[in-house]
Amino acid sequence: MRKWLLAAAAAAIFLAPGLGAAQAQIIIKFSHVVANDTPKGKGALKFKELAEKYTNGKVKVEVYPNSQLFKDKEEIEALQLGSVQILAPSTAKFAPLGVKEFEALDLPWLFKDEATYAKAMKGAVGQWLFKKLEAKGISGLAYWDNGFHMVSANRPLLHPADFQGLKIRISGSKIADQYFRNVGSIPQIMAFSEVYQALQTGVVDGCENTASNYLTQKFDEVQKHITMSYHAHLQYAVIVNTKFWNGLPGDIRTQLDKAMAEATDYTNSIAVKENEDALAAIKKAGKTTLHELTAAERVEWQKAMQPTYTWAKGRVGQEVLNLLAKELDVKMN
Ligand code: LMR
C-alpha cells in the first residue's frame, strides 16, 4: 500500500471527496486541439474507455478536446509543468520543445501513400524521433495518423503561381513554411483554434489541413476553393511527461500501455475512412469548390517545392533525412 501511495503521489493522484485511500484515483488529463469527431478525437476517447476499463476505474481519463484547456503552444508547456498528462500534437509542432527533427515528416510529397507512411513510422525513424524527446523529459507513446493535407484559399490553387502573395496559415513547421515560400506565398504560424476566424476575417487568405479538420472546424465555409493536393502528411505523436509516466505504479502502467496500443490501432485503422467521409460531407455541403490536380499540375507543384529538400538539411539535419531515405527507399538529394 505504501509503495502504491508513494508512486501515485509522485504521479498525479487525487482523492475524490469522501473516498478513502483505497479508492484513490489517478486522473489523467488528455488535452488536444481538434474536435471529438476526428481520428484524434475518437482515438483519445477510445484510450479513455480502454484505460478506465483495464485499470478497473483506478485511472480516470479526462479528455479535453477543441483547445478547451490549452492552445497549441501552451499545451506543450502544460505537459512539461504537469498540468496535463497526455497530448497528441501534430509532429509539426515540436520545434518549441527543441526537437526540430520531427519536421522532416512534413517534407512535401514525402510519403507516396498511406501505406508507405504507416510502414515508415513503424520503422527505425519513428523510434529515433521518440529518442530525441527523452532529453526533454517527454516520452513518445505512439504515432496517430490523420492523412494528407489539402490546401485552400478564396481562389483556385492549381498552379504554383496561384499562391503568389497569399497569406497561408501553417501550424508550426518551418518545412511547411519553406514549401509555401517556394510557391510565392507568405506563411504564418497560428494556433489551430484561431484559424476559422482568421480565415473569415481575412487575417490569412488560406490554410492547409486534412478533410476531417476542414469539416469539423468549418473551414470549408470560409474558403471558396479547396485543392485536394495531398502534398504533405499530418500525423501526431502521443506524448507524456516521462516523470509522470514512470512514476505510475507498474501494474497501472502496463494496463495503460495496453490501452494505448489498442487505441493506436483503432485510430490508425479509422483515419483514412474518417477523412474520406469528411471529404464526402464537404462535397455534399457544397459550400466550397473542390479541385483535383492533374498529373502535370502535380509535377509543377513538386518541382516548385523541391528546394525545400535542400533547405531541410540545415533545419532537421542529415541524420533524420538519411533514415527517411532508407526507410522509404528514395534518394534525398
Ligand atoms: C493544425 O494545427 O492544423 C493541426 O495540427 C491540428 C491537429 O491537431 O490536427
Condensed summary:
By secondary structure, the protein is α/β, with parallel strands linked by helices.
Describe it.
- By secondary structure, this protein is of the alpha/beta class.
- 45% of the residues lie in helices and 18% in strands.
- The protein is built from 13 helices and twelve strands.
- The strands form two sheets. Strands 1, 2, 3, 4, 5 and 11 form a six-stranded mixed β-sheet that branches. It has a six-stranded mixed β-sheet with strand order 8-7-9-6-10-12.
- Helix 2 (39-54) packs antiparallel against helix 10 (250-285), helix 5 runs antiparallel to helix 13 and helix 6 (174-182) packs antiparallel against helix 12.
- The termini are far apart.
- It binds (2S)-2-hydroxybutanedioic acid.
- Residues 33-34, 90, 146, 171, 192, 209, 213, 234 line the site of (2S)-2-hydroxybutanedioic acid.
